[in-house]
């Protein structure tokens, strides 16, 4: 699909696209080709303040919109996404470098489904009423929390925006949402598509560098909640900013997830699952299965099959529907991944396949890195403990269930993970014992609405993608009614 992008994109504040207050812009480029895509506004403090004010101006009316009406709006947004699926998928691929087959099959459909899920959720939402101590009625209602500051990452810019926006709208909140400066376009194009569906000021979109506009969001005094998806390092700053303002924060952060393969696994399915875990989105996934634990009985066979599978993966133009792995996000990420190859060698590990930039032929101008497997690894190595965020998996041999559980838990992270076995008892033992927010069994990287997603330990606070996130975007109101007509008797006459 040919996409006619605008040369300049403004901020979306109060229902209108406007330039930055000082006119500053930054360039966004296609990481697969290095080609220019567009210029986007670099928000100032004044712009963030204007967005916050616009959100608060819209809030009194929006919070009173009936849940049925809000549900209708959410469903209309989902329809609009589906109607423009190819456009949104193409913009996402151009700006991010991920294959079009992923954005068409996963990113965009998951996004529309999240809006439909929360449209349904609020239709079924009920308060509670309980009689206490025989004569008092306790009513519990859920009310919107107010104006929320949200920051989404560059690895899933459109899908993560949907994860944030759907529950915000469902809850009756207003938002100022910031996209990554590496991938600003899909959210801006999205707002062009839905501007007639959402009242002015309910959604405000800020673009710019995290060190500027992102920091302005953290520092602004008028948010009632912060929500962030990204690195653990930045997540700590978000948590501190929220604590200083005495407001809640939900944080979906980094990971170093364990992908565990037992001798009795369905071997063909398991090799496919290895690829699902680490090659999806070029390994730029917080819950990527980057630590691969293989039981000793199949270790050699598994590594041999995995190397052959990795070498067959089709890497190329992300817009080609036959491409299976696309571009990393930028040169900085390429350099980071390459630096870990040197660390691996210094630690005594072996690069079994890949391990270098892919720069031949049509790939020469892009940010491509070969699918990589590293063997002769122990769990204490930096490459087994630190998040690389690329198509790089370390393979570690283990003997017993207890041993692999201990190694899986020997991590500061706890976001995702998987276990591959045909023994349901073993699967449940391992899944329950690994300290992580989600464990897949005989699959990987399934991210549907309706299943809570979030991390343990340094992988974050809170859960998204299911009903529980509505608790984070609302506050409980208790109305306590005395059903008795007699005086309390606490102060007798």
Summarize the structure in words:
The structure is a single chain. It is built from 15 helices and 25 strands. It has helices at 45-62, 67-83, 85-96, 100-124, 157-171, 185-194, 210-219, 232-245, 267-278, 299-312, 331-346, 382-385, 401-409, 424-433, 468-472, and strands at 8-9, 11-13, 16-18, 25-29, 36-41, 128-132, 136-144, 147-151, 174-178, 203-206, 225-229, 249-252, 258-261, 291-295, 350-353, 357-358, 368-369, 372-375, 392-398, 413-414, 417-420, 440-441, 456-457, 460-461, 474-482. The mean pLDDT is 97. By secondary structure, it is of the alpha/beta class. The strands form seven sheets. Strands 15-18-19-14-13-21-22 form a seven-stranded mixed sheet, with helices on both faces. The chain has a six-stranded mixed sheet with strand order 10-9-8-11-12-24, sandwiched between helices. It has a three-stranded mixed sheet with strand order 1-5-4, with no helix packed on it. The longest helix is centred in the first third of the chain and has 25 residues, at 100-124. It starts with 7 loop residues before the first strand and ends in an 11-residue tail after the last strand.
């Amino acid at each position: 699909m040919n996409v006619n992008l605008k040369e300049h994109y403004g901020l979306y504040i109060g229902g209108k696209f406007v330039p930055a207050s000082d006119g500053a812009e930054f360039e966004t480029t296609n990481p697969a080709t290095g080609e220019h895509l567009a210029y986007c506004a670099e928000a100032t403090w004044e712009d963030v303040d204007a967005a916050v004010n616009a959100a608060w101006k819209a809030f009194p009316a929006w919070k009173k919109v009936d849940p049925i009406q809000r549900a209708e709006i959410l469903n209309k947004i989902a329809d609009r996404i589906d109607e423009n699926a190819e456009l949104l998928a193409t913009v996402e691929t151009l700006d991010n470098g991920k294959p079009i087959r992923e954005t068409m099959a996963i990113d965009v459909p998951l996004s529309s489904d999240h809006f439909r899920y929360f449209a349904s959720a609020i239709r079924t939402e009920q308060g509670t009423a309980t009689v206490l101590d025989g004569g008092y009625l306790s009513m519990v209602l859920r009310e919107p929390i107010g104006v929320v500051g949200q920051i989404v990452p560059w690895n899933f810019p459109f899908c993560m925006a949907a994860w944030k926006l759907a529950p915000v709208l469902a809850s009756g909140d207003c938002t100022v949402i910031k996209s990554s400066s590496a991938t600003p376009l899909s959210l801006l194009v999205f707002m062009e598509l839905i501007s007639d569906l959402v009242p002015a000021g309910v959604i405000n979109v800020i673009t710019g560098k995290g060190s500027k506009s992102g920091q302005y969001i953290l520092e602004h005094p008028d948010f009632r909640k912060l929500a962030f998806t990204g690195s653990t390092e930045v997540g700590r700053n978000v948590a501190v900013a929220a604590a200083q303002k005495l407001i809640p924060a939900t944080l979906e952060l980094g990971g170093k997830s364990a992908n565990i393969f037992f001798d009795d696994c369905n071997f063909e399915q398991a090799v496919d699952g290895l690829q699902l875990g680490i090659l999806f989105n070029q390994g730029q996934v917080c819950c990527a299965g980057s630590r691969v634990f293989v039981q000793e009985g199949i270790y050699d066979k598994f590594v041999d099959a995995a190397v052959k599978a990795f070498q067959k993966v089709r890497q190329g133009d992300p817009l080609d529907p036959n491409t299976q792995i696309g571009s990393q996000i930028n040169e900085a990420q390429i350099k980071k991944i390459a630096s870990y190859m040197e660390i691996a060698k210094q630690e005594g590990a072996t690069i079994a396949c890949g391990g270098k930039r892919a720069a031949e032929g049509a790939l020469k101008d892009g940010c491509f890195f070969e699918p990589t497997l590293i063997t002769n690894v122990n769990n204490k190595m930096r490459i087994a403990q630190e998040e690389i965020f690329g198509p790089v998996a370390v393979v570690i041999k283990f003997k017993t269930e207890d041993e692999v559980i201990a190694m899986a838990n020997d991590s500061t992270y706890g976001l995702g993970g998987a276990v591959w076995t045909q023994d349901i008892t073993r699967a449940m033992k391992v899944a329950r014992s690994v300290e992580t927010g989600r464990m897949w069994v005989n699959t990987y990287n399934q991210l549907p609405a309706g299943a809570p997603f979030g991390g343990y330990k340094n992988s974050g606070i809170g859960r998204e993608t299911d009903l529980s996130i509505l608790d984070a975007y609302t506050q409980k109101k208790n109305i306590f009614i005395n059903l008795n007509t007699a005086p309390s008797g606490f102060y007798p006459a």
